[in-house]
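Please, structure for the following, as C-alpha cells.
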Amino acid sequence: MLHASIDNHTELLTDIDDDLQEGHKKQTLKPFDAYMLRKQNATKNDFITGKFGIGPFALNNNNHILTMLYGVRFAEKEGSILTRLGMSRLDIANDLDGRSILAWLSGLINLHVDVAKDPRIGRLNVNPYTYNLVNLMVRTGFGKRTFWFTTQPIMKALANAYNNSKGSYMNDPGMSATRRAKIAEEHVIVNFAKVNGIEKDNIEDVFAEWKDRLEDKNVKVNDLVDKLLVDSAELMH
C-alpha cells in the first residue's frame, strides 16, 4: 500500500522524462516566442491535458485498491494477447521492477496537477488518446515500460492525429467524431508503413505476423516486447 505523499512519487515519471530528453538539444525561448501561435497552442494543449487527466487516474487509483482486495483479473484464455503479455491481472501491488503500482498512479495524478509549472506529462504522450492504455499497462505491472511505449514516434503521431480530429475547426461537420478519428489513425499507420517500405495492402499481413508471434508459445514474451519497441523506434528513421 501507499503510505507517503504523492509528491514523493512524481520522480518516477520525471526520471523517465529526463532519460528521454538526454541527448536532445535544449530549446531556448527567444524574445516574443511566448506570443507566437505555436507556443500559445502548445501551452493550451498542456493545460487541457492537466485539466482532464486528473479524473481518469484518480478513479483508477481508487479502483486499483478494490481490484487488489477482490483479486480481479481478466479471464486467461489460451492465445489471448493479454495473457501472453502478462497483462491479465489487476490485483497486483507492484510492477515488474518491484515498484508500487499505486505510486505510479499517484505520480501521474500529481504530474497533471503540476502541469502549469512542469508540463512533462505531454512529453510522455499521456493524453485522452492514451489514458486507457496507460492505466491498463501501469495497473498490470509494466511500470516504466509503459512510457517507453507511449513515447514511440508512431504512438505520438497517432495521439496527435486522434486529438486533432476531435477539434471543431477544419473538420467535416457531416462526419461523426468517431469516423474522423478512425480516418486520421489510418492515415498515420499508412504513412509510417510507407516509410518502412510496407505498402498499404500489406499492412494487414504485418498485423497477422505479429498475431502469430503472440500465439507462438515458443517465443518468450520479453523477446516480443523488445522486438515491438525496436520495430516502433525504427519507424522514425
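Residues 152-237 form one domain. The radius of gyration is 19 Å.
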